[in-house]
Amino acid sequence: MNIIFSDIDGTFQDLGADVAQINIDAVEALQKNQDKFVFVTGRGLEMVEELQEGSGLACDAIFANGAGLKKVGQVATYQNCLSIDTLERILPIIDAENILYFVHTTHEVLMHPVKQYNENLQNLRESLTYMGEQGISLMDYKTNYFEESCYHVTDIVAFLREHPDRDILKVELMEASDTKHQLLREKLKSSSVTVFTSFVKTLEIVHPLSSKGSAIQNYLKDYTDVTSFGFGDGENDLPMFEVVDVAVAVENATEHIKQSSHHQTVSCQEGGVGKFIFENILLHEQ
């Protein structure tokens, strides 16, 4: 059996675009062949389920960069979440730099009122002008997400202390300045969190044991005699590449990811995941 693990944003689905049809066809062909396809993503569960519904795909999903697992037909499970005490330590550091951030929990995505971040959003929009229409679409989507999909509170820590049923999956932030990105990495560096790049102008903060790599290792404990493949494009995919048998980078991946891969395929926009599956996995099984 083959088990294929794939990142979503920038790997399986291009920014602001529909999923390439060859990717959908490849997943369906794998499943007919009794192989498995698993999404491994920094997205929250709601956004993964939106993708699956829109593409008609029913797959297991490792989400929130390893903190959550949702198998088809089962309830989601969570592990290696952040503590409120950790949140109480790191959020003032981010607030002091006036950076837009949002906190993913098992129930909702929390953030301060969006009007607090109007200048941040404008700076982000200007920083993405090099992407043309794609950058505009991305910021339109993100702004709408912040306004319509997030739950707005003035004191995130206080809210979570009042609602102890919430597990804290990760903190995600968006910032136009690359200098501030590096500054935050230095200020947040500790044994209680891991910080990495996951998306355009985005940093994520997670529990040190919450990674795509550790989540995949746990997932594979239920299977024997399998060959595992991992598809990715960014820094948060490196832990996945370290544990799968075959690591594949799409053409638009960062240079570090490409150098850490065993194979490369065409870009996300061209359906690199599906093309590799058809030409290098399914073809060899016929």
From TrEMBL:
Keyword annotations of the record: Hydrolase
Molecular function GO labels: hydrolase activity
InterPro entries, per the entry: HAD-like_sf, HAD-SF_hydro_IIB, HAD_sf
PANTHER family: 5-AMINO-6-(5-PHOSPHO-D-RIBITYLAMINO)URACIL PHOSPHATASE YCSE (PTHR10000:SF55), PHOSPHOSERINE PHOSPHATASE (PTHR10000)
Identification of the protein by name: HAD-IIB family hydrolase
Organism lineage string: Bacteria, Bacillati, Bacillota, Bacilli, Lactobacillales
